[in-house]
């Protein structure tokens, strides 16, 4: 088992809920509790990013895309990922975090979340209080467009006033394939480098090409 159960809304490690077996993602029948949020559907997150863990993730997240920059630029790596759902239930959310270097900004991280309404994973990873992107974001023109599997998807900035804690990140939200799409870029100004350049692909559709993907820390340059 290379994935462990955490809370989608706060990231806390989950324990077996009373009456549940707390079995792993493939054990079936598990019921899980967060110390803060009570019984929740687990987010199965990689203990350590690896090809083998990602293969388990793709089984659990079947039916949902996992977006990563694609082609993955040289020196970039998939550092973290997870899926809400599984255990015989349809997946409701996925995320992947990729790290790499850009000429303008040095080390950059990019988190992409796809989720159904109300899951709260995107808000947690973006550190904003609302589980779904607020309407405030839609009152302005889109900040950028990302290419997702060849389609152009508009993304709106989540107002910086909603972003808690460490401010050095840009949070964007939009909709793709009928689900919320969250994009978190660190540092904040690195989002400018994404305009016109970023192209995301669904890792669940990659097949043998995944063998060439680096997992874990980005390669040293
Ligand atoms: Zn929680």
TrEMBL record:
Q: Which domain of life is it from?
A: Bacteria
Q: Name one Pfam family in it.
A: DUF6758
Which InterPro entries is this protein grouped with?
A: DUF6758 (IPR046646)
Protein name as annotated: Uncharacterized protein
Q: To which species is this protein native? A: Nocardioides marmoribigeumensis
Taxonomic lineage: Bacteria, Bacillati, Actinomycetota, Actinomycetes, Propionibacteriales
